[in-house]
UniProtKB/TrEMBL annotation:
It comes from the Eukaryota. This is Protein MEMO1. Signal peptide: none annotated. InterPro entries: MEMO1_fam (IPR002737). Pfam families: Memo. Belongs to the MEMO1 family. The gene is MEMO1.
Amino acid sequence: PQLNAQLEGWLSQVQSTKRPARAIIAPRRIFILGPSHHVPLSRCALSSVDIYRTPLYDLRIDQKIYGELWKTGMFERMSLQTDEDEHSIEMHLPYTAKAMESHKDEFTIIPVLVGALSESKEQEFGKLFSKYLADPSNLFVVSSDFCHWGQRFRYSYYDESQGEIYRSIEHLDKMGMSIIEQLDPVSFSNYLKKYHNTICGRHPIGVLLNAITELQKNGMNMSFSFLNYAQSSQCRNWQDSSVSYAAGALTVH
């Protein structure tokens, strides 16, 4: 009940961007791509379980899609321990369950743990996932925070021309966000190489951008825009630390 009340509270405060819908396409499959925080992984990994339990209701993993992905030979299996330790996918499960409450028996999830992929691997996985992204009955959720700033994160980039430290962090994050909005995976890679911004979901984001690039080659028209940005606290001195958060959506036209 506590989780449900919390989610209803937050979701009721969302500024709606569209007028009331006459019809909607509810996703039948929800892909959740999250970065690996605890295990070194050079590819992507699939879960070894059938069900993810949430306090709201159980979410079923799509074994048919898992079978298709496994057959490519591009994936490994994560151990139960890795699966239970990893929060990047887990954090999205209650939201997914709540948002899909009225369709709870009609959809499945496809959790994918994304490793520290090279640019060429991001391209390969982007190509693979592009056919799923093209299908309007699929939804993709990409898990990421933005800048982790401060000594405990071993990251302290500061551009004095921006004023206070937190302003510099925001400027750095928004530079990256605007590159993501341009849907350009190469520019995003270059931005990360130049500034080393500690965006934990940089590889899942890279996979998504490459999938989009693949679909654009085939004439599909899409746009991405960020809807919200926040920092856990405002850093003003070198002892401070903060984590940034950004939320955005991809639309197909």
